[in-house]
Fold:
Amino acid sequence: MRTQFAGMPSDDCPAILATGQTNAHLIFLSLSRREPAGRDVEYLVWHTMDHRPEQYHIAGLRHCLRLASTPECRAARAASVAEFDAVDHVVAYMFTDPRSVSPFHDLYVALCDNGRFEPKLPPVGFVVGDCARRLPRAGSWWVPTSSPGGP
Amino acid sequence: MTGAYVVIEEGRESSADLVDVPGVAGLWWFDGIDIPAPFKGSCKGRQITVCYLDDDLLVTTEAIVPVLAERWAQGGVKGLLAAPFHTIVLFEWSPHLP
Structure:
């Protein structure tokens, strides 16, 4: 089920755009394997409900999107070289600039040192980039109003 | 948003064609850079594209794949990872696990 919102998309409305543009330019993709003992849900609850709100103490962290692969997703991959084939979980962090990554790392270390980062997902690696362009779809603006996989 | 289609490629080329695929609400693409300290490594020479999806994930994926195949056949970029992922929904943790 989808809901179409009234009016034009923000990207097509100069008055809305004039109120400001995002300063999130740097993407930091954190790529991980599944939790070895099957504690993925435990990890997701901790990361979503405890860790992510705390990460926003970092001034340059503007957004965080968590994604997960399923067996169906994996089977549908169009490319998956050995370096990335083990990826099951993705977190797309958006930062303002590279300087914000250091306190992000410091928080990780402080949490680990104080027994707050459990369980952990085995890392696959990081991929980092600077925004070259943002493109919205032209035309109507609507959103799904049921959960993914729902009716 | 139902999920995202994440593309990591070797090389550099516009990802604009992907926004015309039905089910893609919009996309951002990024030029790879050195991984900021204290992390190590570099992503220079690579490109990241994140397509934000607002229709069925696997149906949209079927429509994205031929666009990528044509793009890679032209030789400007090489696909390293091109994969759909579900968005994690609050309090609905289990439906989309590896």
Notes: Chain B touches chain A through 63 residues (CB under 8 Å).
